[in-house]
Amino acid sequence: MGFQHLFQDYVSALEQLFDDIVVTGTDDELFASGYLRGHFDLVVAQLELHEQADAAAIMPAVRQSVEQAKHELSPTDMAHIQALLQRLASVAVPAAEPVQQ
Question: In whole angstroms, how far apart are CA 88 and each of 20, 49, 79, 80, 98?
Answer without folding.
Answer: 12, 22, 14, 12, 26
